[in-house]
Amino acid sequence: METNHPIRTLAVDDEPLALRQLTAYISRVPFLQLVGQCQSAIEASHVLERESVDVLFCDINMPDLNGMDFVRSLTHPPIIVFTTAYSEYAIEGFKVEATDYLLKPFSFAEFSQTAERVRQRHELLLKAAATTTADAREAIYVRADRSTVAIALSTIRYIQGMGEYLRIYTTDQTRPIITLLTLKAMEERLPAERFLRVHRSYIVALADIRKVFRSRVELSDGSEIPVGDMARSALDAWLRSKK
Fold first, then answer.
1. Per-residue b/e over 115-148, b at no fewer than 16 CB within 10 Å?
2. 22-26 own/partner pairs: CB under 8 Å, 24+ apart
3. CB 70, CB 64: distance < 8 Å
4. Cα end-to-end distance, the chain, whole Å
5. Is the confidence at residue 240, as pLDDT, over 60?
6. Residue 174: phi, psi to the nearest 5?
7. What pLDDT shows up at residue 24?
8. What pTM value is reported for the model?
9. CA-CA-CA-CA torsion for 71, 77, 79, 84, nearest 10 degrees?
10. Considering only 15-24, 140-149, 170-179, which range has the smallest mean pLDDT?
């Protein structure tokens, strides 16, 4: 399936041969449009200042400024795909919400699979941008199982933080959705009028609370979630608003 919107693509690699192969691969994918090729992150930053870029294919090991730090420095990063010869960077790549990770040397078949993931991510972003603000707040998008998953806010029962990972428990899934994201980052993405962080490790959907005890809440499926001292006053305020 080809996207109706050409995906504007920037390629960055300090190795001329690797950059040449990458741009050749990009030219073979109908829905990718190459708008620039750079041999350093500094050069790429100048391109981003003057060009609209949808996806950045970026090497990690580069002089002056490596690709990981470069992406972290971007206020509004495009879709990110890291390319590198070092597999130990994979987890780091997903920590900055990279859409994919290509381990050098990669074939055109591998590149094509990544390009398809980029296309799917791009289409999701276009659909989200086309909705109203209210509609956009009805779902969140997270990375899970090497794809982007849309989760309706109305289905979220509670979210458990486990270090740098989250378990998202929903009413329409028997198993939690696991994603690489902190609880604080998730808290900032959820509407405060519908969700409350009741504990350092838990966020609950207020509409799913059925019973409130001094140190815990019980949800509609019987799950019991601890309530921390810091959240007690916020929970009490919510209870008063319901009377």
1. bebbbebbbeeeeeeeeeeeeeeebbebbbeeeb
2. 22/57, 22/83, 25/108, 25/111, 26/57
3. no
4. 53
5. yes
6. -80, -25
7. 97
8. 0.55
9. -10
10. 140-149
